[in-house]
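In full, the data:

***
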Amino acid sequence: NVANMNDQDASEFRNCSVGFVFQMNNLLGEFSAEENVMMPGLIAGMQRQLAQDRAQNLLSAVGLGERAKHRPGELSGGEQQRVAIARALLMAPPILLADEPTGNLDEKTSHMIQDLLLELCQKHETTMLLVTHDPDLAKRLPYQVVMGDGKILEGGDL
């Protein structure tokens, strides 16, 4: 029960058990893509080499292995979002929360990111809770809950 956790335990739980992909990627501009991906592992006390190996594998999986040393300002919006996805998956979390992960991307990049998210969640056996206003994206997901004005309108019968 996370409501009963103290701040330190709740932070540790979030870092190790929940991956986050935000609409705005929240990458740290002073760090490379690889370092941004490594960050959750380093915060959790993971050995640097293990964090780096995982980061490199994930960056390769999202098609950015050759861009690992680039800083966010040197990457396109789609590349930055792929770095954010890799970062969210570094700790192999059982849960991934994604808030409009393709909302700021062009249509082609948006579809590529959608495919990537779905593929990686399946591969890593990660449950994804995705918030979107995009009905086409929602239709690609196995289960939808439609909300309006803070109330469940459809699909609340899990």
